[in-house]
Fold this sequence. Notes:
Elements: E1 8-10, E2 18-19, E3 28-31, H1 33-44, H2 49-56, H3 60-80, E4 83-86, E5 91-93, H4 104-107, E6 120-127, E7 130-131, E8 140-147, E9 150-158, H5 164-173, E10 176-180, H6 186-194, E11 198-200, H7 207-215, H8 229-232
Parallel strand pairs: 1-5, 3-4, 6-10, 10-11
Antiparallel strand pairs: 2-4, 6-7, 6-8, 8-9
Amino acid sequence: MPRPKKCRRVCRLPKNRCFFPERDSGETVVLTVEEFETLRLIDKEAFSQEECAAAMGVARTTVQQICASARKKVAIALTDGLRIRVEGGEYRLCEGNSACRCGAKMMLRCQQKPQGDDIMKIAVTYENGTIFQHFGHTEQFKIYDVRDNKIVASQVADTCGSGHGALAGFLAERGVEVLICGGIGGGAQVALAEAGIRVYGGVSGDADKAVESLLAGALSYDPDVRCSHHEHEHGEGNCGSHAGKEGGCGSRGCGHGCH
Length: 259
């Protein structure tokens, strides 16, 4: 009797299941949900194959096979102008709590560093002990030095009026690898990603407690946080109050999915 396949653990289902070329031939390439997940973890989130395997609860060789299949399908769809549809597969959704291996604790993994350089720096948009709720207008960051998953030092750094475009460089110059914030626009997220800084947005409350929760793998955050505050100038339907005040940008925490 053949050995039954092990269901692959998936953090969340894709928001968009269908992708269409400009000139639609009507032909479709089908990605399974677990193939989509390997692309998300390895190519978007920069997980290693070992980390992806741990997150999905399968062997590394299995991840290699799934990822290779997914990349080939996407390459065919892009070069031949075919539709991509995400459906089916052999997977199960993760529990969506702090025990989830693909949540904050997994994403906050320690990266390989030169010997003697074992400090990781975490920054938080900061105002009077709490998380400031609009990234682009923050006047201070609190930067934490973390060693062996414990906070060993912290300092408050003034941004000196740096705006949206300069803040990613401000953090990168100080060696920051992780940012916790409230609301943040798409352009700022791209700049931070290019600087190699991982973002945990949609977080509010006490700054110190948020960092402690992140290190414990229990931080509630919104992986899809957006803030149009600076893009649409307080237009109708945008972030309610001004940044830093109750109800402001990005104050919605992630109540479901992996935390």
